[in-house]
Recover the amino acids of this structure.
């Protein structure tokens, strides 16, 4: 029998029992007593046979599985198969039971989901996070079944909740980066807004705890004042809605910490200057057939009481978002002369807004699931035809929420098509059919001739014009705006080039044979490179197009081949040659320990964050094999860890600090007489600090400046900042990357 201490700490044991009982209560309606007991016995036997314990990062596997299932049950509300899959996955993964037995005991649907989960898990075998090499495989496995995506999102949320006090900070950072980079965008795309917000908040907490704690603290401090304002705003609305006979619920919802942080960055403002920290939500209890009419009635009532801002109105009642979101958002001028956002929706809409597309499974017949199907099909198309794209670009392609700005157009037969705002005639042609897109020469839009570049508008009736002689062209990539269109154009161009290349290759080899010249692969490779072609395909395609003199080219090939024969020395290939680039010189006393034990490795200090001795740092191996050192709080840290986690190596300072490092300070204050002189005087008197440059801008009695100094370590920098803050008129001094 496995030692319980290996499975659970005392605190985890209490948490597991609580989760187990709550999960049973939550699932009683969809998993019957017989099946739940059968599942419990299987897990108990696996536990007795040491199939459960802790994963390689020290997390309790059993607790993680049950908490993931609880998230799915409470916050998504998925079906029996999904919940059983996550609970039984581990016994199949560890070969305690076969997938055939699972299929026999619990059905093919459960077995199928578990199979996809095992495929996905295999991509994580060697690393805690997904490497770029495996990224496409992971997403393709997602795209087979929406429930697999949702399980992985819930599991990531569960993990993020578990690692708050994990001793390995590197592990916590890598998981947080992946949550921000992959799982939060996926959750957003599927309409799982609660989960998306929590993932983003936790990611910010682990990657920038100081900012997270600061915003959380200020939200707590202003809570009472905010609640009073919300009550004063909604009180007259509540009274009016009661008089009108509506059944409803009203509440004020404070925006997430991550959302507030983004607003502060975007607006370059302090917390105190962000006015829309909350939104008012009105949730109606009304029959399906009266939903839209009642929502618009409430809009009219609020517009009579508070002046609305037409430019900030969002109507997702008439045409819902593609992820199923339905709501009416308005912004009105409220008490104390401030704008307030009001969201109007029904109970059904609110559940879909909270639980995303999964909630449609409880409203079958009410709304089509085509939005989910369209998105999954779109994801497959992008992944299967994106051989040369890196992982981040793929995420951007399928996670960005372009569907907030959609246009709806008609074919001559009256069929309705949906595209994103800015789509062109060319995009529409490819949406109708790939072959029509390939042959498109223009269109008739509402009976008027338009070019491929014409940007379509909602309500347009479009008839595509084609020509059998037309072929896709390279500049079409600048005309297309939709990701799927560009992928189809690239695919068509690539296929055309491959066909040309095959013809050119055959032509070239036939000429060699006619001139009785033997093929020398090494000489051919050298020839292609000398002529400036990046690939053999490009070279042979150019030959086919008769853009180079084939006889002169063969003469050059013969010359290279002869030179190779004459030179009886080993030629070093270009692929093996690594150019030595100068690196920033660091004194031997400033030794960096990289990856645990490696010293005296050449490295550069990254200019995006200017690390100095004493900063918490990490190393990043670039594509040339060199190492750049970044601060842990570097603006690019999350992106680097998310995109290229496998290139990140631990690094720390050791030895003595001898060098001086560049630091940029941002100083803000009142433009008092002599303030600049006082600042420069302090810097000049500070031992071991050298000022390199100073730039000051003054406006309406306030100044903002950037001062570049050289310091030897973090304590010296902190001492300088502390002294500069004492200068009369200085409001703030902070280290910056600008």
């Amino acid at each position: 029998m496995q030692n319980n201490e290996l499975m659970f700490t005392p605190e985890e044991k209490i948490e597991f029992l609580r989760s187990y009982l709550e999960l049973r209560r939550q699932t009683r309606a969809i998993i019957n007593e017989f099946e739940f007991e059968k599942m419990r016995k299987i897990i108990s036997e696996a536990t007795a046979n040491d199939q459960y314990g802790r994963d390689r990062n020290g997390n309790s596997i059993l607790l993680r599985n049950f908490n993931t299932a609880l998230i799915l049950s409470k916050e998504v509300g998925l079906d029996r198969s999904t919940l059983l899959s996550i609970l039984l996955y581990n016994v199949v993964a560890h070969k305690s039971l076969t997938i055939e037995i699972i299929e026999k005991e619990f059905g093919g649907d459960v077995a199928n989901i578990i199979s996809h989960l095992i495929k996905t898990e295999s991509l994580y075998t060697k690393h805690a996070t997904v490497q770029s090499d495996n990224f496409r495989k992971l997403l393709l496995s997602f795209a087979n079944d929406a429930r697999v995506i949702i399980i992985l999102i819930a599991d990531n949320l569960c993990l993020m909740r578990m690692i708050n006090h994990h001793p390995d900070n590197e592990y916590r950072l890598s998981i947080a980066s992946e949550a921000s980079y992959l799982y939060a965008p996926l959750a957003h795309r599927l309409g799982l807004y609660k989960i998306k917000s929590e993932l983003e908040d936790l990611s910010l907490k682990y990657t920038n705890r100081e900012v997270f704690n600061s915003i959380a603290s200020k939200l707590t401090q202003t809570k009472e004042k905010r609640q009073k304002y919300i009550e004063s705003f909604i009180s007259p609305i509540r009274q009016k809605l009661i008089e009108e006979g509506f059944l409803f619920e009203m509440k004020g919802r404070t925006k997430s910490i991550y959302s507030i942080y983004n607003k502060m960055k975007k607006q370059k403002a302090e917390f105190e200057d962000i006015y829309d920290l909350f939104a008012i939500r009105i949730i109606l209890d009304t029959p399906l057939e009266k939903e839209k009419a009642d929502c618009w009635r409430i809009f009219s009532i609020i517009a009579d009481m508070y002046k609305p801002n037409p430019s900030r109105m969002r109507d997702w009642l008439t045409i819902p978002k593609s992820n199923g979101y339905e709501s009416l958002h308005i912004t009105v001028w409220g008490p104390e002369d401030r704008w307030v956002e009001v969201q109007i929706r029904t109970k059904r809409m609110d559940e879909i807004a909270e639980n995303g597309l999964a909630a449609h499974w409880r409203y079958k017949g009410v709304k089509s699931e085509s939005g989910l199907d369209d998105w999954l099909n779109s994801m497959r198309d992008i992944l299967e035809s994106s051989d040369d794209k890196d992982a981040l670009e793929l995420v951007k392609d399928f996670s960005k929420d372009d569907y907030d700005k959609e246009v709806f157009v008609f074919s001559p037969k009256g069929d309705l098509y949906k595209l994103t705002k800015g789509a062109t005639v060319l995009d529409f042609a490819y949406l109708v059919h790939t072959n029509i897109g390939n042959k498109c020469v223009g269109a008739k839009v509402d009976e008027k001739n338009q070019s491929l570049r014409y940007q379509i508008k909602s309500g347009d009736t479009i008839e595509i014009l084609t020509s059998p002689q037309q072929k896709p062209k390279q500049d079409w990539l600048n005309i297309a705006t939709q990701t799927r269109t560009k992928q189809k154009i690239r695919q068509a161009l690539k296929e055309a080039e491959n066909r040309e290349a095959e013809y050119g290759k055959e032509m070239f080899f036939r000429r060699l044979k006619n001139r009785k010249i033997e093929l020398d692969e090494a000489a051919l490779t050298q020839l292609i490179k000398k002529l400036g072609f990046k690939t053999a395909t490009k070279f042979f395609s150019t030959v086919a197009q008769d853009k180079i003199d084939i006889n002169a080219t063969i003469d050059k090939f013969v010359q290279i081949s002869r030179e190779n024969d004459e030179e009886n020395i080993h030629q070093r290939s270009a692929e093996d040659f690594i150019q030595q680039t100068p690196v920033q010189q660091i004194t031997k006393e400033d030794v960096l320990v990289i990856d645990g034990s490696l010293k005296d490795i050449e490295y550069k200090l990254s200019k995006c964050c200017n690390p100095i001795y004493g900063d918490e740092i990490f190393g990043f191996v670039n594509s040339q094999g060199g190492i750049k050192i970044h601060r842990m709080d570097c603006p690019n840290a999350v992106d680097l860890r998310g995109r290229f986690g496998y290139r990140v190596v631990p690094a720390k300072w050791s030895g003595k600090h001898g060098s001086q490092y560049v630091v940029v300070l941002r100083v803000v204050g009142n433009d008092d007489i002599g303030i600049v002189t006082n600042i420069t005087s302090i810097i000049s008197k500070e031992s071991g600090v050298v000022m390199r440059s100073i730039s000051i801008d003054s406006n309406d009695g306030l100044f903002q400046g950037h001062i570049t100094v050289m310091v030897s370590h973090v304590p010296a920098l902190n001492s300088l900042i502390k002294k500069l803050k004492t200068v009369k008129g200085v409001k703030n001094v902070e280290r910056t990357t600008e």
